[in-house]
Amino acid sequence: MGFTAAFVAISLVGTAASLDQQRKSANAQKDIQRTQRASNAAQAAEEQRKQIREERIKKAKILQASENTGVAGGSGEAGATSSIGTQLSANLNFNSGAIDRANQISIFQQNSVTAQVKASEFSALTNLGTSIFGGLSKSVPSKPVGDNAFSRYQSGNQGTGD
User: Fold this and answer.
1) Can you tell me the distance from the alpha carbon of 46 to that of 39, in angstroms, rounded to the nearest whole number?
2) Which residues of 47-62 are buried (b: 16+ CB within 10 A; e: fewer)?
3) Per-residue pLDDT tens for 140-161?
4) Fewer CB within 10 Å, N side or C side of the chain?
């Protein structure tokens, strides 16, 4: 009985430690993904500022060229600056979509980690239950099926006519 109690105690401690480490791992994964999202957002903001700066420079060059050639305010100038604005808008929308997709991937990864942790927790609890009840069943003496007073009486009196 002492060996079984020690086995159960060790199983309890091991399961508790395992569950604790799994939770710590899941929390670390959440921290990693939060940091990654913040990094992605910072990169996106930097890229957005860069593209806006480039757009302003291109527009200024077009406006200066129009002024230098004497066609300032013409349709060519308006079309060129409008095209640059449209390109900027498309680029910014694409980058925004990329950030949204990266965030969605991060959420899916976190959901996967959470599911894995839950599966491990249930597995650990199942193993704990198996070890507890398996250990207890070994400590209780059992008789083979059919080993009772009635079966001994039957086997001892076969063919005697009693």
Assistant:
1) 11
2) eeeebeeebeebbeeb
3) 455 555 555 555 555 565 555 5
4) C
Which residue ranges make up each domain of the chain? Answer: 2-49+83-139
Return d(Cα 1, Cα 138) in angstroms, integer: 9
- Sequence-ordered list of residues with C-beta below 8 angstroms from that of 106, at least 6 positions apart, any chain: 33, 36, 37
Interval 29-46: pLDDT, tens: 888 888 888 888 898 899
Query: What is the DSSP secondary structure assignment for residue 157, as one 8-state letter?
Result: T
Direct distance between the N- and C-terminal alpha carbons of the chain, in angstroms, rounded to an integer? 43
Rg value, the chain, Cα:
37
The pTM of the full predicted model, rounded to 2 decimals, is 0.54
Q: Which residue, 95, 89, 87, 91, is CA-closest to 41?
A: 95
DSSP 144: P
Which residues have a Cβ under 8 Å from the Cβ of 13 and sit 6 or more positions away?
none
How far from the centroid of its chain's Cα atoms is residue 120's Cα? 13
